[in-house]
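Ticket #401: bound-state structure for flavin mononucleotide.
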Amino acid sequence: MNDFYRNKNILVIVTGSISAYKSATLVREFVKSGAHVRVGMTAAAQKFITVQTLAVLSKHDVLTDLFRDEKAAVTHIEWAKWADMIFVVPATANIIGKIANGIADDAVTATVMASPAAKVIAPAMNDVMFNNDAVVRNLNLLKSDGWFIIDPAIGFLAEGYESQGRLPEPVTIINQAAIRIQARGGELKGKKLVITAGGTREALDPVRYLTNRSSGKMGYALAQVAAELGATVVLITTTKREELYGVREIVVTSTRDMHTAVVQEFSDADVFISSAAVSDYRPASQAENKIKKVGHENLTIELIQNPDILSDIGHMKKAGQIVVGFAAETQNVLASAQKKLSKKNADFLIANDVSNVDSGFDSDNNKVTILSRDKDPEKIELLPKIDIARAILDRVVKTLA
Ligand SMILES: Cc1cc2nc3c(=O)[nH]c(=O)nc-3n(C[C@H](O)[C@H](O)[C@H](O)COP(=O)(O)O)c2cc1C
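RESOLUTION: The complex was predicted; output attached.
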């Protein structure tokens, strides 16, 4: 789960949509990510999910009434100050209209208006409502007021048919919001990063291929962090993992396909990060039909060399462009990586020992050493891949500056 929310104060406002039940998962996910969570509910929301459910999950009383007690404290002002972020999830057409037009006639709208926090809103409604002129107008107003709008997903609506209006899954909302909030004023704004991910596949026949154990997790982590820092990201990948907001994916299969896509995207890019595990070799020929056992006591497959993506891009780069390679090795890791750095004309080489069982291929963690042209190798201890990605991109940001 995203570390971005750790120790943050998050106010979740729930309104009267049929998808209000998903707010329970949203609150739980925020709590799991280490955030302090409070919940505000409109009167209509309480028809769909109970106050008690959200009070227990958030471990705090729920804000429902503007005039709820006679103490000196003004609850909605206190809560407005407390919040670092406000999430209106799900948001009805009604609440969107009220907030966009400055109406503060209940506990939640008064709190929203009194808060300088970062604000995220996830509309959920019938598709005709979502396309209604007033709703479109009001969402545009919120956008220009600096709200982060999480677009509804296309999917099966409560009305029984497929269209746009469905509340995205809570984890998607959480990840998308983290990327967008961090990207505002991000250090890679205006920069284009091309990142590769996954293991390439080299066909032997229509059903078989040669590949490796790469999962694509490192490349996806790099793409996520680059997007969080505001970059324009193109992820050229052989595997489809989670959808990342603001990342354009190009799905390829073989090393040659990946090479073509990288060369094309690199011409106007600022940075290339080669985290895919590309096959050095491919079968000399691909059988048109499935290779049969009959007639083959032993089968020898001739392999020929694939193009070297990192080396070609390294030698193609112009002044100002940065190239980062990965060296997955099982022996003499540092010496091999050092050689690769100069041979491929890369600016950084990330050496990882993939013989470790607790890191490297298919693991959520990685243990790497960052080699660069003018500094001593920097060893980074075992960390989640997302933190390794942050460490790598930190070096890239400093070099671009
Ligand atoms: C069964 C049912 C489901 C509803 N679902 C939605 C919805 O998904 N989105 C929406 O904008 N309004 C929906 N409404 C209408 C809102 O509940 C209504 O506009 C209400 O006034 C919203 O109040 P609030 O914005 O203060 O929560 C629904 C109403 C009912 C009865």
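RESOLUTION NOTES: The mean pLDDT is 91.
TICKET STATUS: resolved
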